[in-house]
């Protein structure tokens, strides 16, 4: 193992104002899931995204769970979800006693394939005898999904859409922020995301009733009575005032963080531009990705093997990289769920790698990563794999 300092995939990057908000929370003794930073953070998030209503929550997962509850998802229902994602996108479907139905990706954005989505809806109608109760569309690695097409299909069948923009805050299509296309959207502020509150999330919508309902459920569903009275099952899902303070500071630097992440992507892309076996995703016209993580696809024979060679070479130099998300339809825990598959997500999983992408990486750190990759690619070439 190298004794060089560790380079992380994506680490927290605080700005100048977070500490002031946290200090203020201490000084005013709002050290709880109640307090002025929470409302302010909700207002500021709503303004940034151009959406009517926001509930600040303890995690992105909690936001997805509450989205499904306000949409009435319950036992016996089916909910369609992108297969190429992190398990947190679909675990809440199971929390509700419903069944996930997975839909594979298209090649360009790596996100849900709209054609396959419509096939899945029609097939579920034929096989299960009813329409899916909701659709969860994920914008993976910050890249916008084909959300306009997906919304049109969802509308045709009157199925509500939850946009999982956990990785995509700051991304947009023609200026409209991701998370605001669907009936509900969610963001995550977990430690490795583009901005963080240490742990946190948000549920957003233009539907005020849904967001008010989500806040009510997130604070143990307490009825309006002086004693503790409950007519519904509640959750402890609210964000703390301290974490909301961190979030307010992070929101102030979000656009800088997006720019830095896009610069990291630009660095890798130009550094590896001569290597035809390393492929990057490009943004369709009008699409703007926050480039949360830079992902590469190895396009050569034995790409899975060489992806591992590359990953291990980086690890030896104390550099963290990671295979792309393993599709949900290939996860042991979801093996019995219906899935509509075209092989795209599986291919991405087999031959893709996430590179260190933090907004706080220095030029010399990026060069360290690039050198290891360039050297490994030469080794790979020596093993008679074609690179030009
Ligand atoms: C991080 C993430 C989540 C979950 O967010 P948490 O805040 O970690 O609960 C959901 N979906 C995707 C795609 C994510 O990357």
Q: Name the average pLDDT.
A: 95
User: How would you classify the helix and strand content by structural class?
Assistant: alpha/beta
Question: How many strands, which pairing sense, and closed or not: the largest β-sheet?
Answer: 8 strands, mixed
Radius of gyration over C-alpha positions, nearest whole angstrom: 21 Å
- Might you state the CATH topology name of the largest domain? Aspartate Aminotransferase, domain 2
Beta strand count: 15
Characteristic terms for this protein:
388 residues; Aspartate Aminotransferase, domain 2; Aspartate Aminotransferase, domain 1; 2 domains; 8-stranded mixed sheet; 11 helices; 14% strand; globular; disordered C terminus; binds pyridoxal-5'-phosphate
Question: What can be said about this structure in brief?
Answer:
With about 400 residues, this protein is of the alpha/beta class. The protein has 11 helices and 15 strands. It folds into 2 domains: about 20-250, Type I PLP-dependent aspartate aminotransferase-like (Major domain) (Aspartate Aminotransferase, domain 2); about 255-380, Aspartate Aminotransferase, domain 1 (Alpha-Beta Complex), CATH 3.90.1150.
């Amino acid at each position: 193992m190298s004794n060089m300092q560790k380079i992380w995939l994506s680490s927290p990057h605080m700005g100048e104002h977070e500490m002031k908000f946290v200090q203020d929370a201490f000084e005013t003794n709002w050290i709880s899931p109640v307090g002025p930073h929470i409302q302010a953070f909700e207002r500021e998030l709503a303004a940034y995204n151009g959406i009517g209503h926001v509930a600040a929550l303890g995690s992105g997962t909690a936001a997805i769970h509450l989205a499904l509850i306000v949409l009435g998802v319950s036992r016996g229902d089916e909910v369609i979800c992108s297969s190429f994602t992190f398990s947190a996108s679909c675990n809440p479907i199971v929390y509700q006693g419903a069944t996930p139905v997975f839909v594979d990706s298209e090649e360009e954005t790596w996100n849900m394939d709209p054609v396959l989505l419509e096939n899945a809806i029609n097939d579920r109608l034929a096989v299960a005898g009813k329409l899916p109760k909701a659709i969860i569309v994920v914008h993976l690695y910050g890249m916008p999904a084909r959300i306009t097409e997906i919304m049109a299909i969802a509308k045709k069948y009157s199925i509500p859409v939850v946009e999982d923009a956990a990785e995509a805050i700051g991304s947009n299509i023609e200026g409209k922020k991701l998370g605001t296309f669907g009936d509900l959207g969610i963001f995550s502020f977990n430690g490795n995301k583009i901005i963080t509150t240490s742990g946190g999330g948000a549920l957003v919508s233009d539907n005020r009733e849904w967001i008010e309902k989500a806040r009510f459920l997130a604070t143990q569903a307490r009825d309006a009575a002086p004693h503790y009275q409950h007519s519904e099952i509640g959750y402890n899902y609210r964000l703390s005032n301290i974490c909301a303070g961190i979030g307010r500071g992070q929101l102030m630097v979000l656009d800088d963080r997006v720019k830095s992440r896009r610069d990291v992507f630009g660095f890798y892309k130009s550094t590896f531009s001569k290597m035809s076996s390393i492929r990057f995703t490009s943004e369709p016209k009008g699409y703007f990705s926050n480039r949360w993580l830079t992902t590469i696809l190895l396009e050569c024979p034995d790409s899975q093997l060489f992806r591992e060679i590359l990953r291990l070479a980086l690890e030896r130099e104390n550099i963290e990289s990671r295979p792309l998300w393993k599709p949900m339809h290939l996860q042991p825990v979801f093996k019995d769920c219906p899935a509509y598959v075209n092989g795209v997500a599986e291919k991405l999983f087999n031959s893709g790698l996430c590179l260190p992408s933090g907004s706080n990486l220095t030029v010399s750190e990026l060069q360290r990563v690039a050198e290891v990759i360039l050297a490994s690619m030469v080794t790979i070439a020596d093993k008679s794999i074609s690179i030009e």
